[in-house]
Amino acid sequence: MSERSALAARLAPLLLVGALAAALLAGLDDRLTLESADDGAARAVTAAFDAMPDDALVLVGFDPDVGTYAEIRPTVRAVLADLLNRGATLGLVSLTPDGRALAIAELARMDRSEANPRQLIDLGFLPGAEAALVAVARGINGGSQDPIRADLPSPPDLAVVIGGIDLGARSWVEQVQPRIDGLPIVAIAPTVLLPELEPYRASGQLAALIGTPRDGAAYRAQAELGRLERMVDPAAGPSPAAIIVGLLVAIGVLGQAFGSRLAAVMRAARPRDVA
Amino acid sequence: MPSPTDLVAGVIRFVGEILGASSLRFETGPTLVVLGVLLVFLQLVARPVSRWVTSDAGGLASLGRAMALAAEAGTDAVMSLGTAGVGRSTDVHGRLQTLAALPVLGHVARAAARSGVPLRVLTNDPLAAAAAAATLDAAHAATSTQERVGRSRIVMVGEGRLAPAGLVMTARARPAAAVAAGSMREEATLHLEGLRGGAGSLAAASAEVAQAPSLLLAGGGALVGAEAFQVAADLRADVGERTMVIAANRLIGFAVAAIVIGTALALMGIIDPADLLLGIGEA
Amino acid sequence: MKRATIPALVVVVGVLVLADLLLVNDSLSELAGVAIDAAILVAAGAALAAVASLAVRRARDLWRRRGDPIGAALVLAGMAAMLIAGLRPGAAGATDPAVGWLVAALLIPIGATLFGLLFVTTLAASRRSLASRSREATVLVGAALVVLLMLLPIGGVVGERLSDAAGWALAVPIGAVFRGMLIGVAILAAVFAARTLLGVGATDE
């Protein structure tokens, strides 16, 4: 690698950070809005919530991971606020250590806001991954001697699964849904899980799926949160300016590399003049 | 004293009472699909007579040469067992891949043992570390190099999928060869770039479907999707491994036939495969 | 000669749990529940053992001055900080504000930062793959470029057409490939799991 290329390679990340900072400081986020042309995913979530009975009990499988939670956090908070605004009682259970730590943080946050504490049930942490999921399902089906069932006032009407890279909606579809009749599952997942969750959504095993920042923005735009609007920080969503800068940088970098490769291929294919 | 006939009749009556008090949880279609699991067991028992063509998709068969170069240069080799572990709170799809990585570790360990190259094994789970230690011991025993077993190490990185990725990105080591086999999720690119940065060669194997591009972009040998489970059958002539792959190929053939026939029937409007298999309507 | 005790136990428990999945029967459910509860206890024990094992290994590395002493010291300091925050007299355990601060101020930003590096490393890996003149890399990066162009947030008719194309690409070709891979992986995983549980074939132990 030449000296110039090595210098460019070292400066490139700094230039990227500079471009992102410039986009944020220029206040472009005030003029740009993250929206989706297709709000089908958001409508499916709202429809699943509308189908709940009054004073519903919602089982929330809270297992995001610290790395990808920043992507889904605004949507998660909007979903929790929406459910609380509808009068639902939320039972939060975690099956991963990361998920439990984040669940505690969100419960503390909801405690400090205007959420009614009687609408929140902390079901704690269950080790064992799939075994824990089977225990959750058995607890819902079984008698009051099961710890999960003892804490829930009634069988849940809906399950909302907030997934991460360790455990997500796929495991809930595989282990919980077959054991509990008619329990719809709504999933909120980071984009990295979209390829493996989209088939479950298309087959109807997931009642709804928010798997991209655009779907999350579409949902947040239409969710009615009432007095719990304060639970959701409107400025906390992904920065549209940063997303656009990232898109353009990626297209530029890959385009330049791809163009160089194509040019090299065409040069090699050209017949050489033999002197 | 009851006669054998009475005992048999009693057992049959008992089983009948249990079945009589039971009901199917799913409809017929989904139950038959799940019972297909038993078909998997039958496939393993069968000994199919088939020609086996060895392939080297991940470049792991040429690891011996890299180890010989490492021995000359006095460097070591690194193997990562992925980030799912065996006892961690992650789904079974990830943990199975850690078990599937152990035969790959055995192959790498035997190559390292023959060449006298120290091997560092990275893992974030004590159960995986114990299995890796047993694999290393077995490799040295198989190559009659027990005196070298103390030169290799199992490195317990810490809990979480990020810890191994962070470690390899910041390590100053320059191993001659790096192999990553097992479940790697969103941190896969970080993990593989960190291993690749210092290593002379890199081979990666993971059945994480969403991370297939990360493995291909990392360069070197890449075993993507189902290949991560099949690789052991190409690395050693073990009947059990090859029977497993042949059995799986048969089941994949059945699945393809079911998809084609189901699609044709669905296009003709005769059945709805979703209703049949899942007992629910299509979204 | 291999011992058949463990595979026999695994087969019995596995068939029990499978039967509980397929049949609705109270007695069967109780039996399967015992097995599930045992699995949860074992998982809890394994989690505690993992923490203890990590601490012991790192302490041993520090004592013998081998490996990475700074890393070992940081691991032990982090574990000590979290344990003290949660278990000191008067603390509320995992829900204590001190533990919450450590999670919110350290763990979450560090994790998010590491994943933030993915953007840069993925671009660097793509450029390097193209330079290696690999056919797969060329196709992969070319496809990525096309998808990125389809995701550009452009308004008007062009933007709508691009958005529709992106949706079609995700649902049809990309979805088809991923579904095929998921089916293949699921079948191999089932066969591998059955083989491992039954102890069929040689192992590396």
Short overview:
The complex is a heterotrimer of chains A (275), B (283) and C (205). Chain A is of the alpha/beta class and 275 residues long.
Number of strands of chain A: 6
Structural class of chain A: alpha/beta
Work out the helicity level of chain C: over 70%
Radius of gyration of chain C, CA atoms, in whole angstroms: 26 Å
Q: Biggest sheet of chain C: strands, sense, closure?
A: none
Quaternary state of this entry equals heterotrimer
- Please state the average pLDDT score of chain C: 84
Could you explain how this protein is built, in words?
The complex is a heterotrimer of chains A (275), B (283) and C (205). Chain A is 51% helix and 11% strand. With 275 residues, chain A is of the alpha/beta class. Chain A has a domain of 187 residues: TPP-binding domain (Rossmann fold). In chain A, strands 3-2-1-4-5-6 form a six-stranded parallel sheet, sandwiched between helices. In chain A, α7 links the parallel β4 and β5. In chain A, α1 packs antiparallel against α10. The longest helix of chain A has 30 residues. Chain B is an alpha/beta fold. Chain B has a domain of 176 residues: Rossmann fold, CATH 3.40.50. Helices cover 55% and strands 10% of the residues of chain B. In chain B, β6, α8 and β7 form a beta-alpha-beta unit. In chain B, α3 packs across α4 and α4 runs parallel beside α9. Chain C is mainly alpha-helical. Among the domains of chain C are: 67 residues; 62 residues, no CATH class. The longest helix of chain C is centred in the C-terminal third of the chain and has 43 residues. Chain C is extended, with a radius of gyration of 26 Å. Chains in contact: A-B, A-C, B-C.
List keywords for this structure.
heterotrimer; A: 275 residues; alpha/beta; Rossmann fold; 10 helices; 51% helix; C: 205 residues; mainly alpha; 6 helices; extended
Walk me through the topology.
The complex is a heterotrimer of chains A (275), B (283) and C (205).
Chain A: H1 3-25, H2 40-50, E1 57-62, H3 69-85, E2 89-94, H4 97-112, E3 120-125, H5 130-141, H6 147-151, E4 158-162, H7 169-175, E5 185-188, H8 194-203, E6 208-210, H9 213-222, H10 240-269
Parallel strand pairs in A: 1-2, 1-4, 2-3, 4-5, 5-6
Helix pairs in contact in A: 1-10, 2-9, 3-9
Chain B: H1 4-20, E1 23-24, H2 28-45, H3 63-73, E2 77-80, H4 92-115, E3 119-123, H5 126-142, E4 153-156, H6 162-170, E5 177-181, H7 188-198, E6 202-206, H8 212-217, E7 221-224, H9 227-235, H10 239-267, H11 273-278
Parallel strand pairs in B: 2-3, 2-5, 3-4, 5-6, 6-7
Helix pairs in contact in B: 3-4, 4-5, 4-9, 6-7, 9-10
Chain C: H1 5-22, E1 23-24, H2 26-64, H3 69-87, H4 97-131, H5 135-150, H6 156-198
